[in-house]
């Protein structure tokens, strides 16, 4: 008892402020992680309600609820919020919570910067959302903001959009620097690189991707800003520029960006599947190499988003081959997960269910990705609902499912309570069924020729869109179950032991649940 | 008259081309589109086979290797041989996919030795077709009525996939498309030809097709191009070479006559009522997408005309912006899109509608005089 008190004295000599200032001024990685996670969940609901507007308008052919200009604002801001506001901050939140605990560090290496990188985010999104109420409306040019639609032909909210993206970028870069510095300098004695949990490894690589490409995005938005307001012609042929150059710059950021949104998922799944299979991860080393290979290749495939822009045939071939190659390391990962399950002793708690769904649905997204890589058929798929189906399979039933899995897996560690397993399973099955009703028929709509980003469609697509919309509403509602589970788990529930999962491995399970405010003040010894 | 003819033709034409499949890629009507379809199915089946094996193994493990069945975890966690094997086998499969993909792609990108060349120009939100070997050129606009979109009328069979003047091409000939844009990026797409190419402002892209069967083929703009991106269909009619030649000759004659008519009109003066009636029709067709039917525009995006200073006072500036557009904005130059008579009517309409009652009329001769200044 006395030792516990002694420890508390040690920590509390700088007495933590309470109330709102605790959260405003905190430099604690767990507090900041929680704020990131809550923020991303709020953004997930905001972006999701925009998707509900989209699906409500598309429920029937004809214009019913919104005008096309507002529809375009919804598709644009939905995309921006989900990418920069939901998925990326959720991963940063998980990194904040878990990386120090996984490598036996007391906190992130740069805690004040950590505070700042979170607290600028709400301002970025306040600016973006406020722009929707400006005269002329918010950004309406798609989250990819192709010039000249985003320059000469956009409304004045573009300036707000640009500044908001700048702030998001600064936040991401600072978060990434923090992750890299923490991992390189603060590993516990004995924790060599090749002993790090895969979540740490995948985030380590992701952080390098972020530092490499977020400045490119900043450059792209800055050029949009100067083209629109200061008379430059980066993307205007009349002044010697090139609108296609915008797409090269954007996708040089954009393709690594999609791996930024999936590599940490690989890390999460590589923690959960072994835990519930009660068997060591198969092919740890090849998992690390595969992640690095995917990250490296991600810089060589950007133009597969641009096959119809009229590139020389040799460029098309180069980007087709490189893109096809990505399926090899990705395949290795899937095979490794299956091999991990093989001859394990599996149980199926909610985190495992989400992880299993991830493996299957992400792989389906991978298959459609391979189809999209084949240039001659991409000409048919490009900019149709087939693409929409593809990237929602990898981002919703991929990235988001992995985040759900992570939340269920670590909730006992975060809150000290077990979540309600029944409600968790209900959330899983409701999400699994509705996500497929929502996104699977989109493949058919796309193949049959429905372009993306249209507010109205020909009668041939009416049935499919109705089914998709019903799936969409169901998926949206299902996420409220998750909110309920989390609140219930924070408030109380069965007391969680230090290690609630029989097969789980890692330093985070050696500390009590809930994890004390400060962990690993003295680094653990890793053998 | 030709418009009526085409409309009648469209109504009669068999729907076979589009009815191919509601849930899969079209096989299309060209050799290339057939190759693309075959490639699509091949890759799809390969993916299915891989999926069957991987998911099969996974479900086998899920069913048999579960704790509740007393399964004891094995201790293996790597196997270099297996890992090399499942790296090499996918690589070999990929090579098998890349070979037919490469040859199809090279064939698709070979635009040499075309028989007919059409310049396709996208603009917000219509297509313009110009036959480079003759004088024929025209705009192609959505023909679906506003009332159908607003759910006031029942939607027709080709809802949103019908245009006033489709592109006409000959069958059995290699038709080359030069594709560009006047404003933002559009994308010209006809699924039955497996042709989708972006229209980039300031640059010209090439694509080609050779259609085997006469018919009507429908597509849409595929690249987000602003507010009415969803209302920018592409319709192509393929006719036998003989029919195509006579159509082309007819079009040339019509365009010649229209020019002669234009000259004759210069001497004539139209009444206010007549101008307002024609003007409203032109306004709904060409202006209302942005400035809105009530003339109020969309604040912050498209300026309103109701009560606008330019529209109620400075007539020269008004004619100038309609004829020449305004660079750096979405306002297009309508001087080459509308006839003198239509320009005069729409300007008159804008100056007198929605309470703008200036009482002024603008005649074709006024517009002509302005254009010749």
Write out key terms for the chains shown.
heterodimer; A: 527 residues; mainly alpha; Cytochrome C Oxidase, Chain A; globular; disordered N terminus; B: 373 residues; alpha+beta; Helix Hairpins; Immunoglobulin-like; Cytochrome Bc1 Complex, Chain D, domain 2; 5-stranded mixed β-sheet; 10 strands; elongated
Question: Could you give a quick summary of the protein structure above?
Answer:
Chain A: Keywords: Cell membrane, Copper, Electron transport, Heme, Iron, Membrane, Metal-binding, Respiratory chain, Translocase, Transmembrane, Transmembrane helix, Transport. Chain A: InterPro entries: Cyt_c_oxase-like_su1_dom (IPR023616), Cyt_c_oxase-like_su1_sf (IPR036927), Cyt_C_Oxase_1 (IPR000883), Cyt_c_Oxase_su1_BS (IPR023615), Cyt_c_oxase_su1_dom (IPR033944), Cyt_c_oxidase_su1_bac (IPR014241). The complex is a heterodimer of chains A (527) and B (373). Chain A is an all-alpha fold.
Describe the structure.
The complex is a heterodimer of chains A (about 525) and B (about 375). With about 525 residues, chain A is an all-alpha fold. Chain A has one domain: Cytochrome C Oxidase, Chain A. Chain A is built from 17 helices and no strands. The longest helix of chain A has about 35 residues. Chain B is an alpha+beta fold and about 375 residues long. Chain B folds into three domains: about 80 residues, Helix Hairpins, CATH 1.10.287.90; about 150 residues, Immunoglobulin-like (Sandwich); about 110 residues, Orthogonal Bundle (Cytochrome Bc1 Complex, Chain D, domain 2). Chain B is built from ten helices and ten strands. A five-stranded mixed sheet of chain B has the order 3-2-1-5-8, with no helix packed on it. Chain B is elongated and about 95 Å long. The N terminus of chain B is likely disordered. Chains A and B meet through helix 4, helix 11, helix 12, helix 13 and helix 14 of A and helix 2, helix 3, strand 7 and strand 9 of B.
């Amino acid at each position: 008892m006395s030792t516990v008190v002694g420890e508390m004295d040690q920590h509390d000599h700088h007495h933590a402020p309470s109330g709102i200032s605790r959260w405003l001024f905190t430099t604690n990685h767990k507090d900041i992680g929680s704020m990131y996670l809550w923020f991303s969940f709020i953004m997930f609901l905001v972006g999701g309600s925009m998707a509900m507007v989209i699906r409500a308008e598309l429920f029937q052919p004809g214009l019913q609820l919104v005008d096309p200009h507002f529809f375009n604002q919804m598709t644009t801001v939905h995309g921006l919020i989900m990418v920069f506001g939901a998925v990326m901050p959720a991963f940063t939140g998980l990194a904040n919570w878990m990386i120090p605990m996984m490598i036996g560090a007391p906190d992130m290496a740069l805690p004040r910067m950590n505070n700042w990188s979170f607290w600028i985010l709400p301002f970025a999104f306040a600016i973006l959302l406020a722009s929707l109420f400006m005269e002329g409306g918010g950004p309406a040019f798609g989250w990819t903001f192709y010039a000249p639609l985003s320059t000469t032909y956009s409304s004045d909210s573009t300036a707000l959009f640009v500044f908001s993206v700048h702030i998001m970028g600064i936040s991401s870069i600072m978060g990434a620097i923090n992750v890299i510095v923490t991992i390189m300098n603060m590993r516990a004695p004995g924790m060599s690189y090749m002993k790090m949990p895969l979540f740490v490894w995948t985030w380590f690589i992701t952080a390098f991707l972020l530092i490499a490409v977020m400045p490119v995005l900043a450059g792209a938005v800055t050029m949009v800003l100067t083209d629109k307001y200061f008379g430059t012609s980066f993307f205007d042929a009349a002044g010697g520029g090139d609108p296609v150059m915008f797409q090269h710059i954007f996708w040089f950021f954009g393709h690594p960006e999609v791996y930024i949104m999936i590599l940490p998922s690989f890390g999460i799944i590589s923690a959960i599947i072994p835990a519930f299979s009660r068997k060591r991860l198969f092919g740890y080393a090849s998992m690390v190499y595969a992640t690095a290979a995917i990250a490296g290749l991600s810089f060589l495939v950007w133009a597969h988003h641009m096959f119809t822009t009229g590139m020389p045939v040799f460029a098309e071939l180069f980007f087709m081959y490189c893109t096809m190659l990505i399926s090899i390391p990705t395949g290795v990962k899937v095979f490794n997960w299956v091999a991990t399950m093989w001859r394990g002793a599996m149980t199926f708690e909610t985190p495992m269910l989400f992880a299993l769904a991830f493996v299957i649905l992400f792989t389906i997204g991978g298959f459609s990705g391979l189809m999209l890589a084949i240039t001659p058929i991409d000409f048919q798929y490009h900019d149709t609902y087939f693409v929409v189906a593809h990237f929602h399979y990898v981002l919703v039933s991929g990235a988001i499912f992995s985040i759900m899995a992570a939340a269920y897996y670590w909730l006992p560690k975060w809150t000290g309570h077990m979540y309600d397993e029944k409600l968790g399973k209900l959330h899983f099955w409701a999400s699994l069924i509705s996500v497929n009703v929502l996104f699977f028929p989109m493949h058919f709509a796309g193949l049959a020729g429905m372009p993306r980003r249209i507010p109205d469609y020909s009668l041939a697509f009416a049935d499919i869109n109705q089914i998709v919309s019903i799936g969409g509403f169901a998926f949206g509602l299902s996420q409220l179950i998750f909110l309920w589970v989390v609140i219930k788990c924070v408030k109380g529930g069965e007391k969680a032991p230090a290690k609630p999962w029989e097969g789980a491995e890692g330093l985070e399970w050696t500390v009590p649940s809930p994890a004390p405010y400060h962990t690993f003040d003295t680094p653990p010894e890793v053998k | 008259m030709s418009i009526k003819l085409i409309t009648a033709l469209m109504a009669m034409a068999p729907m076979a081309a589009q009815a191919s499949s509601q849930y899969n890629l079209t096989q299309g009507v060209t050799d290339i589109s057939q190759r693309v379809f075959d490639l699509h199915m091949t890759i799809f089946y390969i993916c299915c086979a891989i999926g069957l094996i991987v998911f099969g193994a996974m479900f086998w493990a899920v069913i048999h290797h579960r704790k509740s069945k007393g399964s004891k975890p094995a201790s293996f966690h790597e196997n270099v041989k297996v890992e090399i094997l499942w790296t090499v086998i996918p690589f070999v499969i990929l090579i098998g996919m890349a070979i037919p993909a490469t040859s199809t792609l090279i064939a698709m990108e070979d635009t040499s030795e075309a028989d007919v060349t059409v310049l396709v120009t996208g603009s917000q939100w219509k297509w313009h077709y110009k036959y480079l070997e003759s004088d024929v050129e025209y705009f192609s606009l959505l023909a679906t009525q506003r009332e159908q979109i607003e759910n006031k009328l029942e939607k027709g069979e080709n809802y949103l996939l019908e245009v006033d003047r489709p592109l006409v091409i000959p069958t059995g000939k290699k038709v080359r498309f030069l594709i560009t844009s006047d404003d933002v990026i559009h994308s010209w797409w006809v699924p039955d030809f497996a042709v989708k190419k972006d229209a980039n402002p300031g640059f010209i892209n090439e694509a080609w097709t050779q259609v085997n069967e006469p018919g009507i083929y429908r597509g849409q703009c595929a690249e987000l191009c602003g507010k009415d991106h969803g209302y920018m269909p592409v319709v192509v009619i393929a006719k036998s070479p003989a029919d195509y030649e006579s159509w082309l000759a007819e079009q040339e004659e019509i365009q010649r006559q229209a020019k002669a008519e234009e000259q004759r009109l210069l001497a004539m003066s139209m009444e206010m009522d007549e101008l307002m009636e024609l003007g409203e029709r032109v306004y709904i067709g060409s202006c209302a997408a942005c400035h809105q039917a009530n003339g109020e525009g969309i604040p912050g995006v498209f300026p309103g005309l109701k009560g606008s200073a330019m529209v109620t006072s400075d007539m020269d500036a008004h004619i100038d912006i309609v004829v020449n557009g305004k660079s750096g904005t979405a306002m297009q130059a309508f001087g080459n899109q509308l006839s003198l008579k239509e320009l005069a009517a729409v300007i008159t309409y804008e100056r007198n509608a929605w309470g703008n009652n200036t009482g002024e009329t603008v005649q074709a001769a006024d517009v002509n005089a302005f254009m010749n200044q």
